[in-house]
């Protein structure tokens, strides 16, 4: 197990009177990809907001490499920890190059001019996300998938060791979802960026994450490698859904197949037996 | 990850330089227009004064007849128009950018109206004059800003609710201003119009100095936050993630913008729609890759200067500048409301 990057201890947090997180403990391994999953309103986005310091917990603390993030200067934190919200706003009429350049904000001071280090970081981010050709285009002219790549490029230009993303694949077609998750995996593998993301789609989470964190009712239900966490019992208790978990024939990772009210025939036929390599989990 | 090719870096640098040059060029043109506009309004009026005479008068020479017209009538008007316009332009674009909505301009959401009510209250009820009036106007403007914010707070503030509450407050404040003006029957129609729609009639040159100081002080402070303000356009969450201190930035922007608007209002009244129009016009001219603070200030100055000139000399009767800018602004307001019903426009 590699060193811990982000460490949440005894987090209690919410909005006003409403408490959403109850005693959340979580450790995010450095250089790995962590996916947070859970049913709607289980507190996964709230947890991400606390981890990114958008929300101050009423109890507990978040440590980034041993330093409490709620005590770090804002700019200093932004040099180490990037955050991409679920639906960022693209200002009207802004070009891709200009938007990605905003990622350099924490590295610029009041009087510091745009430096060649800034330029290299932006060019690098655009190249990594295959956007160099689109640099002069306006955001309004791009497709949803391209736009999401621009936001990731902006976060890349920020050059942080840790990147938090709130549902980076929502509203995207499946091919663009895979595209975005592949891109994030590239960043993780090639740059060692620690990635923490909230994902809606359980199978994609299991496929792309090194660590899966399942949340239920404002608590961490279980955390660990997807092979250990994604079980039929977990799906039942976290999502309230009956399912079968089989081995994904492409990646060898666990894959959840919901049963639903109309899945009876297939459960009776025990689909697992048709795949010799795929024993049922659980 | 693979290094970006050097030619890509120089290509981006080239794009950036071209963009900067484009911006500088347009601002230079705006500035030249403003300068030309000031000289023209000094030369043209009821009578024509040649440019050489105007320059001699500005240089301090005594020219019988024309000297009085230029120095006492036209110059104060031109200088105050430019300063008032710049203040409104800056205050407007600051609010519009921070709240990510062109409708969130101080003259739409009641902040200028509040400052105007404060000024009238100070003059009519408290019998104050000079800087004290400005102070009351600023206090009233800030009070209104705080009131709008409190009333629209419901686990966070959304732009739409804030704007509607602001519009409602503006209407109330406008009627308070009208009521206060009616209690002072000795006031002329011109004076009443100043506090209701804005006018630079009869301004004196000594009113320009506090305006200039306010513009340099608050405008400078606002300009120093231009990068944070631009980052806020991408949403509060993202801006915070990029290291913008939200609370500090908001407080600075609100106080500087309200102060700018209130100082200007204390002199000219709430000149209709200048704050509202300057930013979007500047955006249309400049494109949206970069801060609009300076260009909006220049556009605001031009709007008041030329609006006042048009109101005095180009229309069949003499109108205060607020009527002229009001006529310009109203169709744009309608357009925005119609467009906002279809798409969520930001600026």
UniProtKB/TrEMBL annotation, chain A:
Gene Ontology biological process: iron ion transport
Membrane-topology annotation of the record: Peripheral membrane protein
A cellular-component GO term for this protein: plasma membrane
InterPro entries per UniProt: AAA+_ATPase, ABC_transporter-like_ATP-bd, ABC_transporter-like_CS, P-loop_NTPase, Siderophore_ABC-ATPase
GO molecular function, one term: ATP hydrolysis activity
Keyword annotations of the record: ATP-binding, Cell membrane, Ion transport, Iron, Iron transport, Membrane, Nucleotide-binding, Transport
Protein name: ABC transporter ATP-binding protein
Family per record: Belongs to the ABC transporter superfamily.
Superkingdom of the source species: Bacteria
SMART domains linked to this entry: AAA
Main localisation: membrane
Database matches in PROSITE patterns: ABC_TRANSPORTER_1 (PS00211), ABC_TRANSPORTER_2 (PS50893)
UniProt key word Ribosomal protein: no
Domain ABC transporter residue range list: 6-242
Species classification: Bacteria, Pseudomonadati, Pseudomonadota, Gammaproteobacteria, Oceanospirillales
One of the Pfam families matching this protein, by short name: ABC_tran
Lipid metabolism among keywords: no
Annotated compartments: Cell membrane
Automatic annotation (TrEMBL), chain B:
CDD domains, per database record: TM_ABC_iron-siderophores_like (cd06550)
Protein name: Iron ABC transporter permease
Transmembrane segments: 26-45, 78-96, 108-126, 132-150, 162-182, 202-223, 292-311, 317-338
GO cellular component: plasma membrane
Pfam families, per database record: FecCD
Record's bilayer topology term: Multi-pass membrane protein
InterPro entries: ABC_BtuC-like, ABC_transptr_permease_BtuC
Presence of keyword Metal-binding: no
One GO biological process term: siderophore-iron import into cell
The organism's taxonomic lineage, starting at the top: Bacteria, Pseudomonadati, Pseudomonadota, Gammaproteobacteria, Oceanospirillales
GO function terms (MF aspect): transmembrane transporter activity
Swiss-Prot/TrEMBL keywords: Cell membrane, Membrane, Transmembrane, Transmembrane helix, Transport
């Amino acid at each position: 197990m590699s060193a811990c990057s982000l460490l949440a201890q005894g987090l209690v947090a919410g909005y006003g009177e409403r408490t959403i997180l109850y005693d959340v403990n979580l450790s995010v391994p450095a250089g790995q990809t962590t996916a947070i999953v859970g049913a709607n309103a289980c507190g996964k986005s709230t947890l991400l907001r606390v981890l990114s310091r958008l929300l101050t917990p009423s109890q507990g603390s978040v440590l980034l490499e041993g330093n409490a993030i709620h005590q770090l200067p804002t700019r200093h934190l932004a040099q180490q920890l990037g955050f991409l919200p679920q639906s960022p706003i693209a200002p009207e009429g802004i070009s891709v190059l200009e938007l990605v350049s905003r990622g350099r904000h924490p590295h610029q001071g009041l009087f510091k001019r745009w430096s060649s280090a800034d330029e290299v970081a932006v060019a690098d981010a655009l190249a990594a996300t295959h956007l160099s050709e689109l640099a002069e285009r306006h955001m309004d002219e791009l497709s949803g998938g391209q736009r999401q790549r621009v936001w990731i490029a902006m976060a890349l230009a920020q050059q942080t060791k840790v990147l938090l993303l709130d549902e980076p694949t929502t509203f995207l077609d499946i091919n663009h979802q895979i595209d975005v998750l592949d891109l994030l995996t590239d960043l993780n593998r090639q740059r060692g960026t620690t990635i923490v993301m909230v994902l809606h789609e359980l199978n994609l989470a299991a496929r792309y994450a090194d660590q899966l964190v399942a949340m239920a009712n404002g608590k961490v239900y279980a955390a660990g490698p997807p092979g250990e966490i994604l079980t039929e019992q977990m799906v039942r208790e976290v999502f309230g859904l009956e399912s079968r978990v089989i081995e994904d024939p492409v990646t060898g990772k666990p894959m959840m197949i919901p049963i639903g009210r109309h899945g009876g025939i297939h459960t009776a036929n025990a689909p697992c037996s048709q795949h010799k390599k795929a024993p049922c989990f659980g | 990850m693979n290094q970006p090719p050097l030619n890509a870096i120089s290509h981006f640098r080239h794009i950036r330089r071209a963009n900067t040059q484009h911006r500088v060029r347009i601002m230079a043109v705006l500035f030249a227009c403003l300068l030309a506009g000031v000289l023209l309004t000094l030369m043209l009026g009821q009578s024509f004064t040649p440019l050489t005479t105007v320059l001699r008068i500005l240089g301090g020479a005594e020219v019988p007849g024309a000297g009085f017209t230029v120095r006492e009538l036209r110059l104060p008007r031109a200088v105050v128009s430019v300063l008032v316009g710049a203040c409104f332009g800056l205050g407007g674009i600051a609010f519009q950018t921070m709240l990510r909505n062109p409708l969130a301009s101080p003259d739409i959401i009641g902040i200028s109206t509040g400052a105007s009510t404060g000024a009238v209250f100070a003059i009519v009820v408290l019998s104050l004059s000079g800087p004290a009036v400005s102070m009351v106007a600023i206090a009233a403007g800030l009070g209104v800003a705080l009131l709008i914010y409190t009333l629209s707070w419901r686990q966070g503030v959304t732009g739409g609710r804030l704007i509607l509450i602001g519009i409602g407050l503006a209407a109330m404040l406008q009627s308070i201003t009208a009521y206060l003006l009616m209690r002072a029957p000795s006031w002329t129609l011109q004076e009443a119009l100043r506090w209701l729609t804005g006018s630079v009639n009869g301004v004196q040159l000594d009113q320009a100095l506090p305006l200039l100081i306010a513009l340099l002080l608050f405008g400078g402070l606002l300009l120093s936050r231009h990068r944070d303000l631009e980052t806020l356009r991408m949403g509060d969450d993202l801006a915070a993630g990029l290291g913008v201190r939200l609370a500090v930035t908001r407080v600075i922007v609100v106080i500087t913008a309200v102060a700018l608007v209130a100082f200007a209002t204390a002199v000219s009244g709430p000149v209709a729609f200048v704050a509202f129009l300057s930013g979007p016009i500047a955006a249309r001219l400049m494109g949206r890759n970069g801060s609009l603070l300076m260009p909006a200030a220049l556009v605001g100055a031009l709007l008041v200067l030329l609006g006042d000139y048009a109101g005095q000399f180009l229309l069949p009767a003499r109108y205060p500048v607020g009527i002229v800018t009001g006529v310009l602004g109203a169709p744009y307001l309608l357009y925005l409301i119609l467009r906002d019903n279809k798409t969520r426009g930001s600026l």
